[in-house]
Amino acid sequence: MRVRKVLAAGFVAFAAVVGTAGTASAAPAYGDCLFDQVCLHYNSSSYGYGAYFAQGGNIADYSGRYFKAGENGSAGAGVSVKNNAAAVDNRGTPRNFYLYYNSNYDCSVACVTVSPGQVINLSATMKNNNASGKLGASQVG
């Protein structure tokens, strides 16, 4: 009988550790961005970044995607991501992020590369002129 209680207590303790391990891995890597995501911000750093949009893959057209409130505030929450980003945070990925002025990854007018670990305010050309974005290959080898 005592052995069953000890085993049951051990199982409960093990389950508690395993259960919390799953939630720990889902914790944000940097601010609102999870590991392997890039965050676009509604405002530049001088305005506290504001709302964010987390991107974990390629998006050929930001139409229909919206900023949401996060740890940097709610300014811009609910606003379309397309042509409204002022800053990019690429601290959560080991990959370059490419932001394009035009949809469908078209760099004919302008584009910018944001390296892993970088947080940038967009230039006057790119600020509020973002239509698509994609992640490059991993630079971890």
Word description of this protein:
Residues 1-26 form the signal peptide. This is Peptidase inhibitor family I36. It comes from Streptomyces brevispora. It is a single chain. The protein is α+β, with helices and mostly antiparallel strands and 141 residues long. It has a single domain (26-138), classed as Gamma-B Crystallin, domain 1 (Sandwich). It contains 1 helix and 7 strands; from the N terminus they run αβββββββ. The protein has one helix at residues 2-25; strands at 38-41, 52-55, 87-89, 95-100, 111-114, 119-121, 132-138. Mean pLDDT is 85; it is low at 3-27.
Write a compact overview of the structure shown.
This protein has 141 residues and is of the alpha+beta class. The chain has one helix and seven strands, in the order αβββββββ.
Descriptive key words:
Peptidase inhibitor family I36, disordered N terminus, three-stranded antiparallel beta sheet, four-stranded antiparallel beta sheet, 17% helix, 141 residues, signal, globular, alpha+beta, Gamma-B Crystallin, domain 1
Oligomer: single chain
How many helices in DSSP terms? 1
Computed structural class: alpha+beta
Please report the distance between the alpha carbons of the first and last residues: 53 Å
In percent terms, what proportion of residues is strand? 15-25%
Q: Tell me the number of strands.
A: 7
Rounded to the nearest angstrom, the radius of gyration is 20 Å
CATH superfamily: Crystallins
CATH class: Mainly Beta
Strand order of the largest sheet: 2-1-3-6
Number of domains: 1
- Main beta sheet strand tally, sense and closure: 4 strands, antiparallel
Protein name: Peptidase inhibitor family I36
Keywords: Signal
Organism: Streptomyces brevispora
